[in-house]
Amino acid sequence: MPNPITADRRHYEDISIGESIALGPRKITKRDIIAFASEFDPFPFHLDEKAAKQSLLGGLAASGWQTGALSLRMLVDEFLSKIASMGGLGFTNLKWKKPVMKNDTISGTATITSLRRSKTHPEMAIITIALDMRNQKGQQVMTLNLANLVEVRNPGAPIPEDAHEELAL
Amino acid sequence: MPNPITADRRHYEDISIGESIALGPRKITKRDIIAFASEFDPFPFHLDEKAAKQSLLGGLAASGWQTGALSLRMLVDEFLSKIASMGGLGFTNLKWKKPVMKNDTISGTATITSLRRSKTHPEMAIITIALDMRNQKGQQVMTLNLANLVEVRNPGAPIPEDAHEELAL
To answer: Which of A44, A68, A94, A147 satisfies CB 3.0 to 4.6 Å to A51 for a cystine?
Structure first.
């Protein structure tokens, strides 16, 4: 029986490899940076302007995990909340290319890089997404590749040969 | 000139490959889960108990990114704040093995998996750390590998042959 919550959302069958989605923009304030860092990443260069100026980062910079979490939020808003998502599996190759500084505005692009049925769970497919996040100057600040589960609308349809062996990333 | 903030902390020279550090424990409450998800990962299975019961997760579960951010906080408390850290480079192979459910307690182990001087920046070294996070039953909930910069106390010392070519992960 179709899931009533996700019935109207895009399923495996409605998504294409190569599709790309614009994310953001979102400005990161001093207040945002300090609030997140106080909870999760309490380093002087994320909490204190003076200490930050003396650090390698050269000024108050967001925790890289905050850039990650904010990018996730953009991906939820623009894509994951519109598909019949069943949750995330993990991600890989997360690289912080440049610090996100106070008052930077980040935006990005999510690109569907693969989409495959699960061999073991016919009702599930695995979608992989590449994120390319940039600051207001167009400079890359973070890249990562993420894997997520999405519902298959017609689980009875034959599973292609190239389906995943298992759900692991 | 030595950095006065980090002079007393452990440097490259004081850290060994294979060293392991206990992380946590930390209990995750319903309130923690909803607060984080509201900001970064607003899915019904992270926000609402009823919806969560009908989802693949089977109950209210923390955003996987929250497990990541809380693990980072543990790593800062137990290790990164005690070394002359110069910031993170990124991480890879993040896998969510099992959901973290309401009132689960997570703890873990961080293991130093590599430690190398930078070839291009004699004052920096790259340390890689494997995180193994578990719930109160000892079940693995998340693993990941992380790369961080650490200061070299004696940058004039010869750089070994196996030093990193560059700072990229």
So the answer is: A44
Q: Residue type at A13?
A: E
CA distance A132 to B11: 33
Contact A34, A47 (CB under 8 A): yes
Residues of A whose CB is below 8 A from B85: 43
Please tell me whether the interface predicted TM-score (ipTM) of this complex is above 0.90: no
**pTM (predicted TM-score):** 0.91
Question: Going by DSSP bridges, is the β-strand pair B85-96/B105-117 parallel, antiparallel, or unpaired?
Answer: unpaired
State the nearest Cα–Cα gap between A60 and chain B, in angstroms.
Answer: 13
Query: Does residue A30 contact residue A47 with C-beta atoms inside 8 Å?
Result: no
Range 56-95 of A in CB contact (< 8 A) with B:
56-57, 64-65, 68-70, 72-73, 76, 80-81, 85-95
Residue of A45, A42, A46 lying closest to A54 (CA atoms): A45
User: What are B79-109's pLDDT values in tens digits?
Assistant: 999 999 988 999 999 999 999 999 999 999 9
pLDDT tens track for B17-59: 999 999 999 999 999 999 999 999 998 889 999 989 988 788 9
What distance, in Å, lies between the first and last C-alpha atoms of chain B?
A: 27
